[in-house]
Specification:
Helix content is 58%, strand content 0%. With 187 residues, it is mainly alpha-helical.
Length: 187
Amino acid sequence: MGRRGTTRRRVLIAAGALGAAAPLAGCTAGSGEDTGPSAEERAEDTLRRRSAAVSTALLSRYDAVAAAHPGLADRLAPLRAEAAAHTAALGPEGTRPPASPSPSPAVSGSRAPATQAGPSGSPGAPVPADPAAALKGLAALATTTADTHARALGAAAPEYARLLASVAAASAAHACLLTAAKPGTAS
């Protein structure tokens, strides 16, 4: 007559079998080396970096216009905050845009220093001395940003494509708001 239930012998046999099988559980048919991110993951990372760079350029332009025209700073602040949020959302994990505009020694009415030549809507172009022209250039860059994000939709995974579409729409709305007449003025 044998004992039923768990015995010491059965526990030791089971533990021995598990101990012998444990090293084999990690074996695969491959070389055992981590191959890193897949081509799909690398492509998404590249797209995220490019998209964040486009939004960072717009964010930098908001800062340059606000520094060159302090009278526009209050009007631009909410749009700049949205551009900063877009930059953080679009980039790879850990992307953090500047929290606030960098201080500039520019005097009211003077131009911000240029880092490269280009049309007034380009990120590195000098900010026009005329506030209306500066807003027009900023609106042009917002439109370019929206178009760039919209063109990237086809290469994006569905979830990221939805984010890009939202940011593209918001950038287009920024362009409209930047070119709209200021409340209380005739257009």
